[in-house]
Amino acid sequence: METTAFQKIHTKVDQITKATCSLHATGVGNEEMALVNDRLAQVVKIEGDLVTLQIFSGTEGIPTNAEVVFLGHAPQLAVGDELAGRFFNAYGQPIDGGPEIDGKLIEIGGPSVNPVRRKQPSELIATGIAGIDLNNTLVTGQKIPFFADPDQPYNQVMAMVALRAKADKIILGGMGITNDDYLFFKNLFENAGAIDRIISFVNTTENPPVERLLVPDMALSAAEYFAVEKNQNVLVLLTDMTLYADALSIVSNRMDQIPSKDSMPGSLYSDLAKLYEKAVQFPDGGSITIIAVTTLSGGDITHAIPDNTGYITEGQLFLRKETDIGKVIIDPFRSLSRLKQLVIGKKTREDHPQVMNAAIRLYADAANAKTKIENGFDLTDYDKRTMSFAKDYANELLAIDINIEIDTMIDTAWKLFDKYFSHAETGIKAELVEKYGKQIK
Amino acid sequence: MATTGKVVGIISNLVVVKVSGPVSQNEICYINHDAVKLMAEVIRIGSENAYIQVFESTRGLKTGTPVEFTGHMLEATLGPGILSKNFDGLQHDLDKMEGVFLQKGDYTHPLEVDKDWSFKPLAKVGDEVEAGSWLGEVTENWIAHKIMVPFKFKGDFKVKKIVVAGDYKIEDTIAILEDEDGNEHEVSMIQKWPVKVPIKTYKNKPRPAKFLETGIRVIDSFTPIVEGGTGFIPGPFGTGKTVLQHALSKQADADMIVVAACGERANEVVEIFAEFPELDDPRTGRKLMERTTIIANTSNMPVAAREASVYTAMTIAEYYRSMGLKILLLADSTSRWAQALREMSNRMEELPGPDAFPMDLPAIISNFYSRAGFVNLNNGETGSVTFIGTVSPAGGNLKEPVTEATKKAARCFYALSQNRADSKRYPAIDAVESYSKYLEYPEYVDYVSKAISPKWVDNILEARNILVRGRETYEQINILGDDGVPIHYHETFWKSEVIDFVILQQDAFDKIDASTPIERQQYMLEKVLNINNTKFAFEHFEEVNPYFKKIINVLKQMNYSEFESEQFKKFEKELGEIINEKAVVETKQI
Ligand SMILES: Nc1ncnc2c1ncn2[C@@H]1O[C@H](COP(=O)(O)OP(=O)(O)O)[C@@H](O)[C@H]1O
Ligand SMILES: [Mg+2]
Fold it and tell me: Which domain holds residue B470?
């Protein structure tokens, strides 16, 4: 990054900690960017004329006579149509060997949408995966994470969903992803012939962790540009938000803030909400949908990161290996799409909601039957039927390798009800059974 | 002269200001930043410096920036035009703001200064009045909005002059009052009141006892709320707090609903914006939005204004209560407000209490809840503010400071259970864990025996017992196995399931099932209690489950049908037949 001639160069740094340095300077704005010996930094605290800068790549080797130049602006991104198909680092600089973007400069992390100007999300996103479309239907303008243990194929599922969704742009924000995963996304997007629709901001495990704090805002600001100025439907993929939150805790810890639960900063909820709430349906047709990944440790969703995330996002998609069928499924119990009500039975067939609920209830009964076996009890006839149903249901509907139309999903569920249960056992409204499930006794 | 100051320190939205003169705690000030004014509140005062929390992003703010103090605390503007509005946490009218994005310092007027209101005097010259006395009224949507003597007026006044009926604007003088010293005071249709101070212009606050109907069966029947009561809904994410609050705001029997969307999702407020202007209020036949005011400070809006938003909402509710109205105030979620307090307290490096929350959190919460209540006004009329807040416990664990502090302050406890939500037993209120202290009030028991039925409270206690027994029996069956227990254990368990499926569970998204009037609740409760009192003859435990599933299924079909319609009666008849199949003694009433 170039410095312009009139900028004042400071050469005396007073204090240096692991993440920050402080110096005397005046006329500096809060959250302003600076260069400290050419490393990018940002103002995080001003006390009188003592200014504290957070250096994104760390302070190793920074001397007390480092050259400090204030850049006069908050973090920025150059935007324009040329962003499409390009790969950038956390600062928005190209990492694909291509030219710098010669577009308009916008500040990232800008203002929020006035809630009265938002439109209610209403466009269904079909993914072909029944665990999503049937049980946890997604809608444009929604924000939803995958909750998954690190050994689950979350990046693969997310990429598949992204490619099947009919988005105008897909913006990948990679935080602390491995170089292998970065190459996976790159190859997949190129081979799918989708590269022109894709923009990536990537911080890999090879980059300093604090840098990744910039990635979501970069991705979301680019998304806002396309959604607001071009009225496009933009899908933003953020992986892995747990590593993002870890970077937040590193910073707050180094700044001696009092940690709250699980060593996370007390502001974690607000920090995450500010990002996720960028998901929106704009009045003029554009939209931003966010699909994120929050990795869990040992499936623990009470940890502060997934817990705060769950309070913010509009549901979560839980990946779990179903041992009975040896496949990864979208767990119907712990997964939820809060916006599904807006489309199911309205944009989809009217029996969708009841069929979905009935199947999940019967699947729950099968789980109870399994517990009975574990406790060494005999199974009733009903228990046995639910267990057979559960196996078919997992295979034909919950597994992530499904790719069918929503009507087919609903018909498949009816077929399974018919095979194993009576009408009363499904508990579905009589008029719907009449109309869609005639075979059932 | 007003005190001024200069910015000397910035840590996120906590700004340190060196001041030129006196400032007071909670005083409002404005930072003159790049031609926009950023609103802020004093939250701590040192020897030379005031610490202020800014209700905006402080990006780009520099030291040396001038600050003006206003001499007053955060105030709400009270007057006709509040109903149906969408405000931000500081009562700025969101609809008046320009553009899609919120702009820093875009502070719009909460009301319409140019609008004519048709004023009708209620007081006459010579009347003795005091703060809160009704001077006149205007019709706001359908409410007779009382124009009152400003709450800030202390002492006794005499009406010196009052305007004749006619059209006036909110800032026009509608009356002149004379105080005891003979000074004259002009009164318009608007007044200001500091939001953190309760409005107390009523005679007294008796214990609340009047049943407040919500149409939600598990609440009305098992854990009733009363006019002027308090309740809270703690629950892990996804267990149905917001759906429950929305149902309350649509269905509750109140004159006005104030919804404080505090630090939660913007799309949930959008849902209200989109639906309420379309949905009918069954009591008045008007649109729901006509009785609703929304205070939206969603999670992406300025954190410091979250705290303000619940106080703004409470002040508006108290204002309308002073007009003799029945107000329901809902806040989702009070935990977000507590978290905002925590963020500031941490930035000020205060000594933290449990989970890093400020030490005085319990006092703050209980003070807030104590502002709700049923009041007798000085003119003999009554009014109420019923408050129900949600709590979002970290990790779903109810042993955390906000839940514990709220439990001490609120009289109804609606515990949402993760298990019930996971198995889609909505609303996921655990009827056994939850409680309403009002059920123990003799005044309440008295009231409902007259208003609903003399047997009502006994019936509820009986149903509750059945649930408890069902739960115990279920544990026994799990320990001993299906065939390790006598058949009647299965029967007991399934009878409690009937209550669960038919009374407790309710589909918030079904047009008919969503709201159940109390007569219908009473009818259905008697029906399931009769089933419970019926003895059935089973040969084998395997018969029990399918048999009761049939019963539940038919009862649910009744829930989905219009009350007492052909269809309803058809299912009811079918139910009678199923019961007669296995009933030991014929039960005629069913
Ligand atoms: N009474 C209900 N009937 C049907 N579904 C419900 C009900 N209550 C909650 N749900 C389901 O649970 C989801 C989460 O509910 P919500 O109120 O948003 O939870 P919370 O506010 O506790 O996080 C809803 O989107 C809906 O799918
Ligand atoms: Mg909620």
Answer: 456-584
* Contact between chains at A378 and B560 (C-beta distance less than 8 A): no
- In-domain check, residue B88: no
**What is the distance in angstroms between the CA of the first residue and the CA of the last residue of chain B?**
79
C-alpha pair distances (Å), A21 with each of A13, A74, A438, B272, B398: 7, 18, 73, 47, 41
Q: What's the CA gap between B254 and B245, in Å, rounded?
A: 14
Which tokens hold the place of B437?
């202290």
Answer whether A28 sits within 8 Å of B57, measured CB to CB.
Answer: no
Q: How far is the CA of B507 from the centre of ligand 2 (A)?
A: 17
Give whole-number Cα distances, B206 to B126, B209, B375, B376, in Å. Answer: 31, 9, 7, 8
Q: With CB atoms and an 8 Å threshold, state whether A111 touches B86.
A: no
Q: Which residues line ligand 1 (CB under 6 A)?
A: A 336, 338; B 235, 237-243, 426-427, 507-509
Overall residue count recorded for chain A in this entry:
441
The answer to whether position B89 is within a domain reads: no
Nearest CB partner across the interface for B395, out of A116, A117, A307: A307
Inter-residue contact A268 to A203 (CB < 8 Å) = no
- Asked whether the beta carbons of residue A427 and residue B545 sit closer than 8 angstroms, the reply is no
Q: Can you tell me the distance from the alpha carbon of A155 to that of B242, in angstroms, rounded to the nearest whole number?
A: 31
Residue to mutate, B218, B237, B239, B243, ligand 1, most ligand atoms under 8 Å from C-beta: B243
From A373, which residue of chain B is nearest by alpha-carbon distance? B481
Domain A76-107+140-313 belongs in CATH node 3.40.50.12240: yes
Q: How far apart are CA B412 and CA A179, in angstroms?
A: 53
Q: What topology does CATH give the domain A9-70?
A: Elongation Factor Tu (Ef-tu); domain 3 (2.40.30)
Does one domain contain both B232 and B353?
A: yes
Do B440 and B461 belong together in one domain? no
**Are residues B339 and A378, on separate chains, in Cβ contact within 8 Å?**
no
Query: Smallest CA–CA separation between B217 and chain A, in Å?
Result: 20
Domain segments of chain A as ranges: 9-70, 76-107+140-313, 352-437
B394–A contact, CB cutoff 8 A:
yes
Measure the CA–CA gap between B579 and B527, rounded to whole angstroms.
12
Residue with tokens 């057979």: A388
Q: What is the pLDDT along chain B (590 residues), one digit of tens a residue?
A: 689 999 999 998 999 999 999 999 999 999 999 889 999 999 999 999 999 999 999 999 999 999 999 999 999 999 999 999 999 999 999 999 999 999 999 999 999 999 999 999 999 999 999 999 999 999 999 899 999 999 999 999 999 999 999 999 999 999 999 999 999 999 999 999 999 999 999 999 999 999 999 999 999 999 999 999 999 999 999 999 999 999 999 999 999 999 999 999 999 999 999 999 999 987 788 999 999 999 999 999 988 899 999 999 999 999 999 999 999 999 999 999 999 999 888 888 888 889 889 999 999 999 999 999 999 999 999 999 999 999 999 988 999 999 999 999 999 999 999 999 988 899 999 999 999 999 999 999 999 999 999 999 999 999 999 999 999 999 999 889 888 999 999 999 999 999 999 999 999 988 899 999 999 999 999 999 999 999 999 999 989 999 999 999 999 999 999 999 999 999 999 999 999 999 986 545 54
Considering only CB atoms, A378 lies closest to which of B99, B265, B482, namely: B482
Q: Report the nearest-CA residue for atom 11 of ligand 1.
A: B240
Q: Is the pTM of this model over 0.90?
A: yes
B60 falls within a domain: yes
Q: Could you tell which of A338, A344, A352, A354 is best to mutate to test the pocket of ligand 1, judged by most ligand atoms within 8 Å of the CB?
A: A338
Name the minimum distance, in Å, from the CA of B156 to any CA of chain A.
Answer: 43
Give the Cα separation of B325 and B448 in Å (integer).
21
Q: Determine, for residues A31 and B58 on separate chains, whether the beta-carbon distance falls below 8 Å.
A: yes
ipTM of the complex: 0.93
Q: Does B476 fall in a domain?
A: yes
Q: Is the CB of residue B459 less than 8 Å away from at least one CB of chain A?
A: no
Backbone phi, psi, residue B401, to 5°: -55, -40
Give me the residues of B, 184-213, that contact A with CB < 8 A: none
